[in-house]
Amino acid sequence: MIITCLSILAVDFRIFPRRYAKTETYGTGLMDLGVGSFIMTNALVSRQARNISSVNLKAALRTTNPLILLGFGRLITTSGVDYQVHVGEYGMHWNFFFTLAAVSILTSLTNIPPQYCGALGISILIAYQSCLLQGLNVYLLSSERGTDIISQNKEGIFSIFGYWGMYLIGVQLGHYLFFGSNSSGTLRSKQWTRSRLWILTLLFWLLTVVIDKHVERASRRMCNLAYVTFVLAQNLQVLAIFSLSDFVAGSQSSALQDAFNRNLLGSFLLANILTGVVNLLVDTIFVSSLTALSILSLYAYTLAIVSGILDFYGIRLKFW
């Protein structure tokens, strides 16, 4: 989340290396990981993964209302101030908050035990990938748009199936790796989890290489099968590396990490607001490297200070 918050403003300046920016069609960059990682990490520690309660549609609609409001809020504000939005990312009106809400609602509609979520997720991804190979990918990557709402937001709407499949697989992985069959949500032993994290990391990286080469290249824009396995492999690898911190003396997390952990979505919202303000006030493309670095440093310090103050006073902005 910290890397995402820093990158969404930094990418608007010339000093940001373009190889780290989001890809237009196929391929992967650092910023392509943000959206998928947010879905993945939510799934790993979700209520479904912990198997502590069933989620019905009514409860899902109630908890996703804030996300839907945030989605419409972002749409209204960006349209109202004529803020530049990359249409090829989600479409003309869609944004990531709508995707989060849709995944939550679809998951609640299925409402199956976590040990079976992976099979459903794989089935959805295979069916979606088959449709992509039958010509849906050409439609999603084309710049042509009709007048209907689906055509205008085709990337955001169709990519839901990819993110939903990813979320379901993440639920089963979280259940398997951390919570097991224990209904109370008690964590598994660290040694058991560590060994399986490394095995799964290697497995998903192998799958990513094979699918990317022989099926279809990874595409965040479509959230296809290769992109899903890429996100799973990358996140599992990061978790596997972090699991080695047990062998290092001292604190395993920083104060800044703890502050962001308490208000993940709140920090992300603040970062989006500050990014919008900077872009409205500064012509980021034409500023010097020194000015860009100064603005980014001030932006980073503001994010850290606000998150730290909220954490110090125990304030948590909970949206679901």
TrEMBL record:
UniProt subcellular location: Membrane
GO cellular component terms attached to this protein's record: endoplasmic reticulum; membrane
Coiled-coil annotated residue ranges, if any: none
Cited InterPro entries: PIGW/GWT1
Highest taxon above the source species: Eukaryota
GO MF assignments: glucosaminyl-phosphatidylinositol O-acyltransferase activity
Transmembrane segments: 94-112, 118-140, 161-179, 195-212, 224-244, 264-286, 298-315
Keyword Transmembrane helix (UniProt): yes
Record's keyword annotation contains Nucleotidyltransferase: no
Cross-referenced PANTHER family: PHOSPHATIDYLINOSITOL-GLYCAN BIOSYNTHESIS CLASS W PROTEIN (PTHR20661:SF0)
Protein name as it appears in the record: GPI-anchored wall transfer protein 1
Organism: Punica granatum (Pomegranate)
